[in-house]
Amino acid sequence: MSAATAAVPAPAAVGSGKELTNPPTDGISNLRFSNHSDHLLTVRLYDADANVLKGEFVHAGSVLDCCFHDDSSRFSTGADHTLTVEYQKLDEKLKLTESLLESKIAKLQEDNRALDRLTKQKEATLLEAERTVEIALAKAAMVDDMQNKNQEFMKQIKIRQEENKILDRLHRQKVAEVEKLSQTVRELEEAVLAGGAAANAVRDYQRKVQEMNVTYYHRCIFCKSSLFCTQTVDPCYSYHINGVDINFVFC
């Protein structure tokens, strides 16, 4: 294995190359550098006989230590160890970042679960609020219906009040008529009583007449026959007092 240290020349234009000073003769013909930026170089190794590309390496820096192996199958540089250390550091950073991300993911998952629970609680609250609103609307509809019925009842009450007023007037008229009829009844009672007094007077007069010694005889005022009349069924009675004929007909 042979080694060579190459001082990197000043950056050239993209695509240009610089050959290595004193290149090794064991299978490597030249070493070309291609700079893509101010600090980024591409190293290409070519076979001496077949002019075949043996390897390629991207390096950032001003000095490159090249190590050529005997079998010409491997090519390594001093930057490999540095890259390994940097890789380890980067791997540690990645692991730390992964751990932080996992913790953040776990926290986010817990937050999502809490948010899911809160969302379900809010959905239940919204459903309860919707049911409450529906009940309130139903009650409001019932209240409106009751108000409409109350208005109808108030109209009916007003109509009944007017009817009661009319009935009251009719009642007063009937009371006045009853009072008049009562007065008429009293007058009729008085007349009946007066008629009764007259009847009593007649009966008294008849009794006095019977007490007197009068000539009693039967004679019909129609046919002048005695005892029974051929014109009527019942007999007719007549009294002769002091030359005056008093006829009583009971038919």
From TrEMBL:
Pfam families: MAP70 (PF07058). It comes from Oryza meyeriana var. granulata. Belongs to the MAP70 family. One of its GO terms (molecular function) is microtubule binding. It comes from the Eukaryota. GO terms for cellular component: microtubule. Keywords: Coiled coil, Cytoplasm, Cytoskeleton, Microtubule. InterPro entries: MAP70, WD40/YVTN_repeat-like_dom_sf. Residues 1-29 are annotated as: Disordered. Residues 98-191 form a coiled coil. It is found in: Cytoplasm, Cytoskeleton. Residues 1-14 have a biased composition (Low complexity). This is Uncharacterized protein. The lineage of its organism: Eukaryota, Viridiplantae, Streptophyta, Embryophyta, Tracheophyta. GO terms for biological process: cytoskeleton organization.
